[in-house]
Design a protein that fits this description.
By secondary structure, this protein is of the alpha+beta class. It is about 35% helix and about 30% strand. It has helices at about 1-25, 85-100, 115, 120-125, 135-140, 210-220, 240-250; strands at about 30-35, 40-45, 50-55, 60-70, 75-80, 100-105, 130, 150, 155-160, 160-170, 180, 185-190, 230. Helix 6 runs antiparallel to helix 7.
Length: about 250
């Protein structure tokens, strides 16, 4: 009987070690690594960083606006600019001085100022910008700084030895909202097309509400292996943000 109990203990102890192993390997504890009056940078994985700046609005108060920086081999790509040129210049200097990395490109995912408002700062540093063709058109119509390069459906750009993709799946928050994907870490930057959990519908002045859920369904199908999802505003999470957004805008 004593041998049986001892053997059982060894088996259970071994199982516990095996069970705990992968959790340590896969987990990454997010940490705020930079904060100023205008900009917060949070590292959310080994090579990905959320940049957050703030937009003062009449209806929603001081709104945090997210973008994403992804890095590989001392090269980076930025999704969405901070809210203005001052905050964007701060982000550019942080990438150069703290990540010691080159910025290969900036990709605004739609034409609102929480996505494109700091684009001139990137152009001042001769950093190429890429946007969906409708974003370029809407930026021009609204007298915003115009992205230098346009894509009709999607674009794939190199960052070090890896790639990132920006793609338009359909209308939702705006007629032009694209999303970004970093396959190396299975990170989706949804921008304002996606909502944080428990969020309301937000600003709908340029939205196509009936199409919104269907567009997000397409995004979900395209990236079944997604692990981290970053919305345009609020807390990041996982694939549940896709499901929440689909449900929020579902029409009968």
């Amino acid at each position: 009987m004593e041998i049986t109990i001892k053997s059982l203990f060894i088996i259970l102890f071994s199982f516990a070690i095996v069970s705990c192993g992968p959790q340590k390997t896969d987990s990454f504890k997010a940490k705020e690594i930079y904060k100023s009056e205008n900009l917060i940078i949070t590292q959310i994985s080994e090579n990905s960083f959320i940049h957050t700046s703030y937009k003062q609005t009449n209806d929603f108060g001081n709104v945090p606006c997210n973008g994403l920086v992804v890095k590989n081999n001392n090269e980076t790509i930025v999704f969405d600019t901070p809210i203005n040129d001052k905050s964007s210049e701060e982000l550019i200097q942080w990438i150069n001085n703290h990540l010691h990395a080159k910025i290969n490109a900036v990709i605004p995912t739609h034409f609102h100022d929480d996505s494109i408002g700091g684009l001139q700062a990137f152009h001042n540093h001769n950093i190429p910008s890429y946007a969906y063709s409708r974003t370029t058109e809407l930026a021009k119509e609204n007298n915003f700084v115009i992205p230098k390069n346009s894509f009709s459906d999607s674009v794939v750009l190199k960052v070090g030895n890896e790639e990132v993709t920006a793609k338009f799946f359909g209308e939702g928050h705006t007629k032009d909202n694209a999303v970004g994907y970093f396959p190396a870490e299975n990170i989706l930057f949804g921008g304002c097309l996606l909502k944080e959990l428990e969020a309301g519908k937000g600003y709908l002045g340029d939205a196509n509400v009936p199409a919104w859920s269907e567009t997000v369904e397409k995004v979900k199908q395209a990236y079944p292996d997604v692990k981290i999802v970053v919305p345009g505003h609020g807390d990041y999470g996982n694939g549940k943000l896709l499901d929440y957004t689909i449900k929020l805008f579902k029409t009968q």
